[in-house]
Amino acid sequence: MKRSRCVQDDPADERFCVGCRSPARRTVLKVGLGLGVGLWWSGSASTQEVDPRAARPREDDRFVLAGRGRSGGAVGVADVPLGDPPVTAYPMDPATGMVRDQSRLNQVLLIHLDPTELGAETRTHAAEGIVAYSAICTHTGCDSWEWQAQTRTIKCPCHFSTFDVRDGARVLDGPAPRRLPALPLKVIDGVLAAAGGFSSRPGFQQ
Ligand code: FES
After folding, report:
1. 118-150 residue pLDDT tens
2. Which ligand 1 atom sits nearest the alpha carbon of residue 140?
3. 45 CA from centroid of ligand 1 (Å)
4. Is 89 in a helix, a strand, or coil?
5. For 31, which DSSP code?
6. What are the backbone angles phi and psi of residue 19, rounded to the nearest 5°?
7. Which among 25, 78, 171, 181 counts the fewest CB atoms within 10 Å?
8. Which CATH architecture group holds 53-194?
9. Would you kindly state where each structural domain of the chain is located, as residue ranges?
10. Is 0.90 surpassed by the pTM of this model?
């Protein structure tokens, strides 16, 4: 199973994690408390402005598998088998092939479900039964997941929040304060593409 990471592992996302005990974390925490979370968010926005590789996914972006980069090719419907554990991917600019992997907040989980199982709202942002959600837990930002096939839920192993992927990734259990942001999808020539941006801000906020 993939290691759970503190958000400080990502140089593009300067924020803090309650699970991290490093001196650097305490320094950042003091700054965050002193200046407020508004500054925390504007820092991320400026990162996106200077580096398009950290910009959030946008309409028509394709996807590549996390860890494979563009050499693995764009993720197609066939690459996300029905009922399998989530596939972790990053968005890619279709015009330039630039992968937006300089912010871990851009990681998405692609999950293929029977379309008849999806809630009405979830169906509107799914494509051929495939849904996409932010891979960053809304509690304190872990990005490892356990797939629970029987219940079509994903569980964060850090503090055991559970999300229902058939119903907009709403929180079923655990300390997560809100659902995972959804990324609407469409299919172009058998390849998955974003149909818009995240439904809400990915990440967490203390
Ligand atoms: S990070 Fe705490 S439940 Fe996911």
Report:
1. 999 999 999 999 999 999 999 999 999 999 999
2. 1
3. 24
4. strand
5. H
6. -85, -5
7. 78
8. 3-layer Sandwich (2.102)
9. 7-52, 53-194
10. no
Q: What is the distance in A from the centroid of ligand 1 to the CA of 4? A: 10
8 A C-beta contact, residue 197 and residue 64 = no
Question: How confident is the model over 153-194, as pLDDT tens digits?
Answer: 999 999 999 999 999 999 999 999 999 999 999 999 999 999
For residue 206, name the pLDDT band (cuts at 50, 70, 90): low
Name 112's Cβ contacts closer than 8 Å, sequence gap at least 6. 77, 80, 81, 82, 83, 84, 128, 129, 130
Ligand 1 center to 192 CA (angstroms): 28
**Six-digit token string for 91:** 């968005």
With CA atoms as reference, report the closest residue to 72 among 53, 45, 99.
Answer: 99
Of all atoms in ligand 1, which is nearest to the CA of residue 174? 3
Q: What is the whole-number distance in angstroms between the Cα of residue 160 and the centre of ligand 1? A: 6
Q: Which atom of ligand 1 is nearest to the CA of 141?
A: 1
Amino acid occupying residue 201: R
Residues with a CB atom less than 6 Å from ligand 1: 137, 139-140, 142, 156, 158-159, 161, 174-176
Residue by residue, DSSP assigns 132-187 as EEESS-TTT-----EEETTTTEEE-TTT--EEEGGGTTEEEESS--SPPPB--EEE
Testing ligand 1's pocket by substitution, the residue of 6, 142, 179 carrying the most ligand atoms inside 8 A of its CB is 142
Return the ligand 1 atom nearest residue 175 CA: 3
Token digits of residue 25: 């974390």
